[in-house]
Design brief:
Strand order of the largest sheet: 8-7-9-10-11-15-16
Number of helices: 12
Structural class: alpha/beta
CATH superfamily of the largest domain: Response regulator
Largest sheet: 7 strands, mixed
Number of strands: 16
Oligomer: single chain
CATH topology of the largest domain: Rossmann fold
Number of domains: 2
Order of helices and strands: HEHEEHEHEEHEHEHEHEHEHHHEEEEE
Radius of gyration: 29 Å
Distance between the termini: 96 Å
Shape: globular
CATH class of the largest domain: Alpha Beta
């Protein structure tokens, strides 16, 4: 009897031990399986969290193609300069995705939505056209992502359509206007304006008129033309009939009016021409305007600082000796601004937090020090009063410095309702 009970006890203990071992083995397999399933996800999350993604919207085809490519080249050089060649900031890799807006606002919205939803970018940059940019602004606020506006110029971007996620390294129409008016406006002078019939032109003319009238000049005609037109004869005839002292031209794109202005011999009729000196391609058809006084956003020989020296040298190395053009330094400035903001945030790309850090932030650029004005996030910056001169070895009139207009000289009015 004792033997039976002893044997039974052994069997019971064996069963308990076997069950325990079985549970332990099962748990280990489950843990291992769970580990196998979760490890790749954790790795993916870590990799994602260690990358800053930037979506750049630009006109890489179409009428403003040259502007888009200048911005792209400058942005890439700017990231390299600001990160010391590492393409990292605060321990995070920087990844850039470029999208072509085709200079069509509806396409710009589609591409921006793709960048925000599919690519999950942390920042937006762009665009070449004011129309494209204005269409995209609400998305930056909806997705709570910082958008650096470059080089779109319309005042309304940081004015009536402003939202707190928008910061602009590009100059605005009012800054252009102050610089343009400084060159020609004074009491008794009569001025006609000529611009494309969309936001860039409207804002530019409105700002120039305000600046010129403040200096005592009279704007006698505001003439607008279809931005896609190639024949401006009727527009220019209206200007000739008004007999102004100056014609101030605001234009962007390959279909510029300079050849027709020359063909109609407007200057020979006693009307002086003034404008913002454009990119090198447009300067090449402005030989009839040699001697013109106006302003420019940038020409590579005008700023004197180490960053511009680096930009000119590196650009020549990488682009077959070509110098940086009108909007190349703007692309570089946008990149520097993002890297400097991420240094301040220690790599955190939260839009709300970045707003606090970027308001009032100063940073060095190829054009000198820029500062994001807290009230409207417009970068205060230098512009240049220039005269177009013929120089040996150049196939275009060269902008020669009259004087540098400081950020305080060109500070525009605050036009938003913040």
């Amino acid at each position: 009897m004792t033997k039976k009970w002893g044997l039974l006890l052994i069997l019971v203990l064996f069963s308990i031990f076997s069950a325990a071992c079985s549970d332990k083995a099962g748990t280990s397999k489950e843990d291992e399986k769970e580990k196998e399933e979760t490890t790749p996800v954790s790795s993916e999350v870590t990799e994602e969290a260690s990358t800053i993604k930037i979506g750049v919207l630009a006109s890489l085809t179409g009428a403003l193609e040259s502007y888009g490519k200048q911005t792209k080249n400058g942005f890439e050089l700017g990231l390299e300069y600001a990160t010391g060649g590492t393409m990292e900031v605060a321990g995070k890799k920087i990844e850039v995705v470029y999208e072509d807006t085709e200079t069509k606002p509806e396409v710009a919205v589609q591409k921006a939505t793709k960048l925000l939803e599919d690519d999950e970018v942390d920042f937006l940059v762009g665009s070449s056209s004011s129309g494209d940019t204005l269409a995209v602004l609400p998305l930056a606020e909806e997705y709570e992502k910082i958008m650096i506006v470059e080089p779109a110029v319309a005042d309304s971007i940081t004015g009536s359509e402003f939202n707190p996620y928008i910061f602009r390294t590009g100059r605005n129409s009012s800054q252009d206007a102050v610089a343009g008016a400084a060159a020609i406006a004074k009491p008794g002078v009569k001025i006609a304006t000529f611009a494309p019939d969309y936001s860039f032109g409207w804002d530019g003319v409105a700002a120039f008129k305000a600046a010129a009238e403040k200096l005592g000049a009279e704007v006698v005609l505001e003439e607008f033309a279809d931005p896609a037109a190639t024949d401006f004869t009727s527009n220019l005839q209206k200007i000739i009939q008004k007999k102004p002292d100056y014609l101030f031209v605001i234009w962007a794109g390959a279909n510029s009016p300079w050849n027709q202005i020359a063909d109609l011999k407007i200057q020979e009729k006693g009307i002086k021409i003034s404008t913002g000196a454009p990119d090198i391609a447009a300067l090449s058809v402005m030989e009839p305007l040699i001697g013109m006084e106006g302003f420019t956003v940038y020409y590579h020989t005008l700023p004197h600082n180490p960053i511009n020296d680096w930009l000119v040298e590196e650009h020549k190395k990488r682009f077959d000796g070509a110098v940086p053009d009108l909007f190349t330094p703007g692309g570089m400035s946008a990149a520097i601004a993002i890297v400097e903001a991420l240094k301040k945030s220690e790599g955190k790309a939260d839009g709300k937090e970045l707003i606090k850090l970027m308001e009032g932030m100063s940073f060095e650029t190829p054009k000198g020090t820029m500062t994001f004005r807290p009230e409207d996030h417009q970068a205060l910056q230098s512009l240049y009063s220039i005269k177009l001169e013929k120089q040996d070895g150049f196939a275009y009139p060269v902008p020669v410095l009259i004087r540098e207009l400081s950020p305080s000289d060109t500070e525009p009015p605050i036009l938003n309702k913040k």
